[in-house]
Amino acid sequence: MKIDYRCSNPIKTTKPIDYSVYKNKKLSINGNGNNNINTSINTTVNSNNIKIQRINRSDEQLRQIFMKIGVVSQGSGSSYVEMGKTKVLCTIHGPRATQKTELFETAKLNCELKYTTFSSTTEKIEYVENSKEKDLSLLITQSIIGSIRLEKYPKTAIDIYILVLNDDGNVLVASITAATMALADAGVEMFDMVSSCSVSSTKDNRTLIDPTTSEETIPTSSTILVAKMPSLNEITQIIQTGELQYTNVLECVDLCIDGCDKIYSIMKQNLIDSLLQKQKEKEQQQQQQQ
């Protein structure tokens, strides 16, 4: 046996542990204190038979949603969105003049999404931008660019910064919602606000609206996301991951559209409440000055 001479007092009389004595023995603790140890643990997981359990909501029910605008004073507009445990913060800067010499007739839309290092418990997040963040930033831009009247702001740039504080699934939906709310808070002219919703379909014919991280990462599941301008009844983005039959695709899209309408009503009511609150605060300030 090798001796570790880095120790101050190397031990020379130790023996290796014989694990064979513990093989196929059961663990039982009785009142007399006699313990039998079982070290054989079955870790086999069948990905096709993963049990999905939703707490306090059905398969076609959204998680609790919280929205608030004007949370960051430094930006032109900002918003904070919670969907269950998923938390997203968005800040808008602009429209502002660009430093580049090139001239363009419409505003340029820039979007940058970043995960915090503590946002996920399933994967390690680094400070450097990765491909996932770049892909999500591009998808967000594609989803909302059609709703903004860019021709109203020539030779300017609109910068969207999204920070994912906590990731519990449906980050893209929460980010699109937060970006739209922040644009409205910044006073950027739009044809309509964009609402978004996603649905996850499993092999056992379950359709889960507003999926969590555990539901999104099922190996046999497929996901469909729809971004929509409800007032104009126009779809700005459809994203599908995984394989689905044609009939299932239509069913998932219909559920996403219904979810978009529900989220849109929450967004609109939140903006109305915020506007009424600002008007009330102004009236109180005027009364105090008088």
CATH superfamily: GHMP Kinase, N-terminal domain
**Structurally, how many domains make up the residues?**
1
Q: How would you write the strand order of the largest sheet?
A: 3-4-5-7-6
Major beta sheet, specifics?
5 strands, mixed
**Average pLDDT score:** 83
CATH topology descriptor: Ribosomal Protein S5, domain 2
Number of strands: 11
CATH architecture call: 2-Layer Sandwich
Distance between the termini: 91 Å
Fraction of residues in helix:
25-40%
Query: Tally the helices: what do you get?
Result: 4
CATH class: Alpha Beta
Estimate what percentage of residues fall within beta strands. 25-35%
| Shape by Cα distribution | globular
Q: How do the helices and strands follow one another from N- to C-terminus?
A: EEEEEEHEHEEHEEH
> What structural category do the secondary elements indicate?
alpha+beta
Low-confidence stretches: 22-48
Radius of gyration: 27 Å
Tag the structure with descriptive keywords.
Ribosomal Protein S5, domain 2, 25% strand, alpha+beta, four-stranded antiparallel β-sheet, 4 helices, 290 residues, globular
What's the short version?
By secondary structure, the protein is α+β, with helices and mostly antiparallel strands. It is built from 4 helices and 11 strands.
Give structural notes:
- With 290 residues, the chain is of the alpha+beta class.
- The protein has a single domain (58-278), classed as Ribosomal Protein S5, domain 2 (2-Layer Sandwich).
- Helices cover 27% and strands 25% of the residues.
- It is built from 4 helices and 11 strands; from the N terminus they run ββββββαβαββαββα.
- It has helices at residues 131-144, 171-186, 213-216, 246-289, and strands at residues 28-29, 35-36, 65-69, 77-83, 86-97, 108-115, 156-166, 195-201, 207-209, 222-229, 234-241.
- The strands form 3 sheets. The chain has a 5-stranded mixed beta sheet with strand order 3-4-5-7-6. The protein has a 4-stranded antiparallel beta sheet with strand order 9-8-10-11, sandwiched between helices.
- A hairpin with a 4-residue loop joins strand 10 and strand 11 (234-241).
- Helix 1 (131-144) packs across helix 2 (171-186).
- The longest helix is centred in the C-terminal third of the chain and has 44 residues, at 246-289.
- The termini are far apart.
- 30% of the residues are buried.
- The model is unreliable at 22-48 (pLDDT under 50).
